[in-house]
Amino acid sequence: MSKPSQRLPELEDSHGARYPLKEQFAAGGQGVVYTTEQPNVLIKGFTNKDAAVKQRWRTHIEWLIRQDIADLKLARPLVLIKEPRMAYVMELMDGLVPLKTLFDSFIEATEQASEDNPAPQIQNYLDQGGLRRRIRILCQLARTLNQLHGRGMLYGDLSPDNIFVSDDPVHAETWLIDCDNISYDSHSGLTVHTPDYGAPEVVRGEAMLSSLTDCWSFAVIAYQLLTHNHPLKGERINDGEPEREDEALRGEHPWINDPDNPDNECHNNLPVQLLEHSQLPDLFQQAFGPGKQQPTERPSMAQWLETLTEVDDHLFVCKECGSHSILPREALQPEGAECFFCGSPADPELVLFQEFIFVSHDEKVEKYPELEGNHLATGRVVCLQSGDQKELKRLLPSFSYDQVPSDHIQLEYQPDKLIITPVEPLFISRGDNNLKEFSKKIPLKTDKRHQDDTPYCIHLGDPQQTHVFWQFRW
Asked: What angle separates helix 130-150 from helix 119-127, to the nearest 10 degrees?
């Protein structure tokens, strides 16, 4: 923070608009960010004194201002400050703090916890929004990076310092700031990285930044956010000489959950079993196992986004302790599922929406004669509890929603009813001969639940042709 007595200048942009600076907001290796007297308007200043570097930076920012990235959750450059100042204007909504503040709080809780007494760590985890908030932060971050990569660009120096999230743990709004390193993937020419988050090949000085190094940094941040530990810093590293940490960050030691080498295990963190009913442990193994030495083996941002979205769909809140756990992927009913944190049984009143593909008679005969019956389960399941509002999406989450409606069906589970709202006219059926078209809200009363176990089916397309449908019981 700037000293109250320090008078900050008023800056003018290249179009003549003026911005009285208010106070320092953030600082890093490449610059400093100030708030202004205008709401949500920030100024990012470049602090390198080298004349050639300054000119390259200004040319790059001019290029970045022209790029089509306004729809992404990036505090992107909007306009340059008039020379000789080396700075630009950007916008960022109120109520956001660096993700690093969450990391700092759980580092403190981890130091207070032990293998025999994990209570401080677990309480911090829940106080900061639990598993659901962390998954939703990562979903938003993965979506932004996936869309950036889809345009042939990379972000660059990804770290908890330049990821900003809601300061209210109820919310998970997520934005990237410090966009100076965004460039085309094919010619970034950059090696800058934040300690702990640089890909091993960058730390070793063997490669430039790329979308593959973004994927590494994201995986490290995701693992830290979900388990309270750096994936390369187990007890062998933390209890060893400082040189070992440098070796680990260069990729010379096993990661902490390496299935073939337990030498770097870590017990003072939340166990990866928290995520066992998902594909996340497999993605972490792929990233920090084969992907540690072979960048092309790392999961893409599309893979991360689809897996994280599936986890969000499968989360249920425990009625006893208020934490979130993952419903087993194979569960079609909540019976048998338990809270990871307290062991209480899952809410018996949650509703599961399961996605199927209906195969028409003609297509079955022509293409799938070996198919038993006429429908296939896709594996997609959405878990809904009282108080939830969710959408059944039209597309997989890694696809862009820019040009088409993002969903077919909106769901709202109120205490006295389940409300199903189609975005466009659809068909709903129950049983073999009860097909009806609906274009308005359908309320299903809670007091009528469990009277008939026959499933409902919501058909996304012509019910007589091959189409997707969602099935649920009420």
From this structure: 60
d(CA 72, CA 158): 16
Do the Cβ atoms of 316 and 385 come closer than 8 Å?
yes
- Between CA 322 and CA 329 the distance in angstroms is 21
Distances (CA, A) of 44 to 2, 27, 66, 149, 387: 15, 9, 17, 24, 41
What pLDDT shows up at residue 331?
Answer: 67
Dihedral sign for Cα atoms in the order 111, 117, 122, 123: negative
**Is 42 strand, coil or helix?**
strand
Max CA pair span of the chain: 81
Q: Please state the rounded mean pLDDT for residues 190-217.
A: 94
Q: Please choose, from the candidates 218, 52, 202, 80, the residue with its C-alpha nearest in 3D space to the C-alpha of residue 146.
A: 218
In angstroms, rounded to a whole number, what is the distance separating the alpha carbons of residues 56 and 340?
51
Cβ contact 74:28 at 8 Å: no
Contact 288, 232 (CB under 8 A): yes
* Tens-digit pLDDT profile for residues 24-77: 988 876 789 999 999 999 999 999 999 999 999 999 999 999 999 999 999 999
Helix orientation angle between 301-314 and 130-150, rounded to the nearest 10 degrees? 150
First to last CA, the chain: 55
Cα separation values, 85 from 9, 20, 36, 260, Å: 11, 14, 16, 54
What tokens does 67 get? 């790029």
pLDDT (0 to 100) of residue 402? 44
Beta bridge partners of 467: 358
Chain centroid to CA 436: 37
**300 pLDDT above the threshold of 50:** yes
Q: Are 172 and 133 in contact (CB under 8 A)?
A: yes
Q: What's the token pair of residue 467?
A: 């189409």
pTM metric for this prediction: 0.91
Q: How far apart are CA 198 and CA 158, in angstroms?
A: 8
Between strands 435-438 and 426-430, the pairing is antiparallel
